[in-house]
Amino acid sequence: AQSVTQLDSQVPVFEEAPVELRCNYSSSVSVYLFWYVQYPNQGLQLLLKYLSGSTLVKGINGFEAEFNKSQTSFHLRKPSVHISDTAEYFCAVAGGGADGLTFGKGTHLIIQP
Amino acid sequence: EPEVTQTPSHQVTQMGQEVILRCVPISNHLYFYWYRQILGQKVEFLVSFYNNEISEKSEIFDDQFSVERPDGSNFTLKIRSTKLEDSAMYFCASSKGGEALQETQYFGPGTRLLVL
Predict the structure, then answer these.
(1) Which of A46, A49, A99 shows the shortest C-beta gap to B55?
(2) A interface mutation test: which of B29, B42, B47, B54 has the most A CBs within 10 A?
């Protein structure tokens, strides 16, 4: 069984400041890792994913994430946030033969002007 | 850009009634999924569907739930006799197939179901 922990339910950040959203996972098998974003009243949109290879993954809208196997983490970062980045961010894992994604509880990113 | 669509966006129903949530996956996708998100909780996997049959289902997907692909475009989730605890946002998703786990799942905007 897999699980995903997003410790921060809310992260307030000033505009143009850097941000890191934390994600830790637990799995007994190799996993694939994803970050999705949900803007208000919209569905989940893929930001980036890690399947294999380079541990630093770049995604859309200037986001990137680093896979750290020893720390079982996949933290999401952006060097400079904008008001438009205000959204809910979900970390998810797939693996172990399961079809479905296992999601974390989500982190609400709040950008303050 | 092709996208997954869902109807209705909101549904209010009485406890015990049947509801059907509809989804139109992206046209060349082969895997289809339903997830739900109870308010304030995680997005949870319900079921996956491939080659006209259920591929995998979670513990949540009990006999009250069923899925169907009635034609070449729609993918539906039916809840036979709704309970209060079925109130949630229901997301449909689809992916291309092949190495399903590696393929990106594209999500629809969701249907918010409220059971009274």
Answers:
(1) A99
(2) B42
pLDDT of residue A30: 77
Contact B31, B97 (CB under 8 A): yes
Could B44 and A103 be called an inter-chain contact, meaning their C-beta atoms sit closer than 8 Å?
Answer: yes
| Segments in chain B below pLDDT 50 | none
pLDDT (tens digit, 9 = 90+) per residue, B18-29?
Answer: 999 999 999 989
- Measured distance CA(B7)–CA(A47) in Å, rounded: 25
CB contact under 8 A, B105 and A101: yes
pLDDT tens digit sequence for A61-80 = 999 999 999 999 999 999 99
